[in-house]
Amino acid sequence: MTADQENSGSCCTADGSCRSGTPADGGRETGITTVYRVTGMTCGYCEGAVSEEISALAGVTAVRAVAATGEVTVTSTAPLDEEAVRAAVDEAGYELAGTA
């Protein structure tokens, strides 16, 4: 949880996006970035639930979910197995529609 999240009591940042963890490089996200389309997200809670489940996948270094667009941007150290991402999104209660 970031300091902003601890202070606000929310899983979301001030701009309404959810972020999981802090990149080891001090804020610059490096690695492979993939944007997924997720259906069913409508609010900050949804963003946090999806972010939390995807963040648990091995190799994931950052997640940014935006309910308004249905996009989830995932940065990882290696390519992710789409079925693993699908299972994580399903566990959160939403549906992976594919990559954006």
In short:
With 100 residues, the chain is α+β, with helices and mostly antiparallel strands. It is 29% helix and 28% strand.
In terms of topology, how is this protein built?
Elements: H1 3-8, E1 18-19, E2 32-39, H2 44-55, E3 60-66, E4 71-76, H3 82-92, E5 95-99
Antiparallel strand pairs: 1-3, 2-4, 2-5, 3-4
Structure description:
It is built from three helices and five strands; from the N terminus they run αββαββαβ. By secondary structure, it is of the alpha+beta class. β3 (60-66) and β4 form a beta hairpin. Strands 1-3-4-2-5 form a five-stranded antiparallel beta sheet. It has one domain: Alpha-Beta Plaits (2-Layer Sandwich).
| CATH topology term | Alpha-Beta Plaits
**Secondary-structure element sequence?**
HEEHEEHE
Mean pLDDT across all amino acids: 82
CATH architecture: 2-Layer Sandwich
Q: How many distinct domains? A: 1
Q: Please summarize the sheet with the most strands.
A: 5 strands, antiparallel
Percentage of residues in strands: 25-35%
Let me know the number of strands.
Answer: 5
N- to C-terminal distance: 27 Å
- The helix fraction, in percent, is 25-40%
- The computed structural class is alpha+beta
Shape: globular
The tally of helices reads 3
According to CATH, what is the class?
Answer: Alpha Beta
How would you describe this structure in keywords?
100 residues; five-stranded antiparallel β-sheet; Alpha-Beta Plaits; 29% helix; disordered N terminus; alpha+beta
